[in-house]
Structure prediction request, 730 residues.
Amino acid sequence: MEEQKPNKSPHFVNENSKNKQLEDFRNDNEGEYMTTDQGIGVSHTDDSLKTGSRGPTIMEDFHFREKMTHFDHERIPERVVHARGAGAHGYFQPYESMAEYTKAKFLSDPNTKTPVFARFSTVVGSRGSADTVRDVRGFAVKFYTEEGNYDLVGNNMPPFFIQDAIKFPDLVHSIKPDPDNDMPQASAAHDTFWDFASLMPETTHLIMWVLSDRAIPRSFRMMEGFGVHTFRFINEAGKARFVKFHWRPMLGTHSMVWDEAQKVAGKDPDWLRRDLWEAIDMGEYPEFELAVQIVEEEDEFKFDFDLLDATKLIPEELVPLKPIGKMVLNRNPDNFFAETEQAAFHPGNLVPGIDVTNDPLLQGRLFSYLDTQINRFTSTNFSEVPINRPVCPVHNHQQDGFMRQRINKGKANYFPNSIGNGCPMMTPENMGGYMHYMERIDGQKIRARSESFNDHFSQPAMFWNSLTEPEKQHIVSAAHFELGKVENKEIRRRQLVHFHHVNPDFAKRVAAGIGVEVPEDKSVTLTGNYESNKASEKMKKGKSVKESPAVSMEKNKVKTAKSRKVAILIEDGFDCNELMQVKQAIKDAGAHAKIISKTLGKRTSSTGEQVEVDKNHVTTASIMFDAVYVPDGEKSIAAMMKEGDALHFLSEAFKHCKPIATSGHGIALLDRAFITGINVANSNAGQVVSDKGVVTAGSDAEADEFAVKFIDAIKMHRFWDREMKDTVPA
Ligand code: HDE
Prediction:
């Protein structure tokens, strides 16, 4: 057999971006005549073919049968987890070459823009469930690199529930709706989940994160992403290092309030996907910085936890983040099903320079994702669907199967062959051939876990210690909700034992709200079969930290008003001059204002100007906004004093700790809306007062100063220190 020399690299610098590739499949019906799937012109689609206009439909109607059959088969099985999600296209660009650490081409040149498709999701709910439930969020990114597809399939929280993939079916069964009555939808707050969790101490770390505000993100654009597992970077010289991946949102990490999230789930179940869609539509492209934590191979045992244990994170205080590039999401999909629903991610989609480790959770995922796609697509040919196609050439001897798209030519469908000139031939390593990292493995065949995985409480304790008091209180309140819905008191008690090992005071605070005591017997049963070994011995002397301020959202708040939504409540007789000035300041800060009133139509100001209303109280609510402003105007305020919806709007915004601004006559509204315990301006003086996010101005105050203070308050996102919010009956 003659040896073949490739005349060009199998990988080329991709000039045709993924967008161009998708272009070939995009179908714009505008100006086109209707046809059947066979291309036969359809002359009539409003009536089926019948024997007489009152007679039976006849089999001969091929157009009817085709149309109905296609409809009957429209659904594919939803993802068994992460069924509910929203996606967007964009690109990733590195800041500098990462060649020192990895030979991955898409990370080697700051001029390379790699097309990406990102999908954000909830985990537990089905496809039609609400967006704002308490849950982990999926953060999956497909990079269409010139060396093939690389998928970073992560979550918005850095640890995971379990350590070994074999427990995943148990975890998911317990958290999904009960098998007998299929309830509750998209919620962990039921006996089966807490039964499982309270018997599995390794779940404690992620449970702390799930009870925290991280589980109710304000927006997909405002949440972090984590690769969770430890991966490997390998450079050209073959040197490997451990790596953890982080996505950091440029708008900062922000959340909702639980009461607000529950209400939004009813009033707008599409809240998060709508927010993503509208932001991209308006040109406010979500941006995320990719950062890595790199650990030298020789430092593998330097920590007091195991890098292979996915229930642990590497505190940033021990290994700082190195920002390496930015992702910009700048295009909405054209078709939800074809793109978002059919996107098939897989942590085993790796490019040269990035490899996996022996993390037993990751190892199991490497099996599961391909398997799950075959269930969803009933075919291995899902990789030929446009959204999943790599942008580089694909050549191999895979063939046939349901819905094969590629038309392979020639007779040689095996390797080695001579009749096809030995093609496609092997890709040498220096031309992008993937080489698995040659790790030396030496061990007994054993169903066990390393003892280095058995500390389940130090990191949850670290998480608890790192938070501000309001963040801690939110966790306690979330535990009251979740465990309060658990009927079985024994399960509640058992979970308190885990919480006690995190922090005894925390356990007591939870116990106080759920009608059971922290049990006397604090012993915990480990479910794994732990084996002592050299690694676990070394780690006992490893480094740790008791606090990691990097995990607190409050301590790392990005203060910006960009893309925030501000409600402006008016009725006839509002102060137009003030409204216009504040509205302009909102716009200048990159935020968006909407005028809300009792009814749609036009409202007339005290000086005769007319303003169009964007939303009435029936179609919106305070939970759809980040801040509220009520302009002065005697008549307008007098009307709102008697308007339940407007008063409720203000009360609820106050309860949810949102910035509120009003002036002059509006100050009197606050009291009526149960907004108390706040220092306010004298309504007739020239002062502006900003106290705990409530900004008030006297009728003679400077509108400029008033607007600046309001924008500053919006930048703070929420004011958790409003103790009196609990007295508001909204
Ligand atoms: Fe997944 N996971 N997972 N997961 N996962 C799926 O694959 C699985 C885990 C994650 O937007 C499924 O295509 C196992 C960790 C995301 O389409 C399935 C284990 C992390 C998405 C699957 C895990 C994730 C999935 C279902 C334990 C964060 C949505 C549909 C070993 C690092 C991707 C699908 C998208 C989806 C299996 C644990 C993230 C069944 C067995 C840890 C973001 O294959």
